[in-house]
Amino acid sequence: MPWKRVRTAAVWAVVSLGLFIGLPGLRESTADSGVRTVSPAELSPLLERGVALIDIRRADEWRATGVIAGSHLITAFDAEGRLRPTFMAEVAAVSAPDRPLALICRSGNRTAVAARLLTDESGFRTVYSVAGGINDWLRDGRPVDDCRSC
């Protein structure tokens, strides 16, 4: 197995374990990692400033809830929780590592992992992870676009 895949798998395992057992610092953003955790309310001004938003959920999830207008629909993890091999390249086609980027999923767990992978593996400097994901976005009464054909 190539070294980069081993390193990606190791990062995934550590971050997943941290999310599962609640290790301090893995849910919170850290200045040195480039990952910033934001609420749905904090996401809105970022979007107004032109920060690209990537919805990393699966198509069935997009159809179930709808999507935030203007978001890029790029699935990060398959139904078994495996990182899709094309995810990093698809993100790189949407945004450059020197530009801020925001990620959203259902509840915020997958975006925390994906954000860390993008900063650690692809050199993204600032990745916003939306805490509470689309669930909190909707709970706050924020709008979504229908995505029945996604």
Distance between the termini: 34 Å
Reported for the largest beta sheet, the result is: 5 strands, parallel
| Low-pLDDT runs | 6-31
Structural class designation: alpha/beta
Order of helices and strands: HEHEHEHEHEH
Mean pLDDT: 85
Contiguous helical run count: 6
Number of strands: 5
Q: Per the principal axes of the C-alpha atoms, what is the gross shape?
A: globular
Query: Strand sequence of the main sheet, in spatial order?
Result: 1-5-4-2-3
Q: Rounded to an integer, what's the Rg over CA atoms?
A: 14 Å
Can you put this structure into words, describing what you see?
With 150 residues, the protein is an alpha/beta fold. It has helices spanning 3-21, 40-48, 59-65, 87-94, 109-121, 133-139; strands at 35-38, 52-55, 72-73, 101-104, 127-130. Strands 1-5-4-2-3 form a five-stranded parallel β-sheet. Strand 4 (101-104), helix 5 and strand 5 (127-130) form a beta-alpha-beta unit. Helix 1 packs antiparallel against helix 5 (109-121). The chain is globular and about 35 Å long.
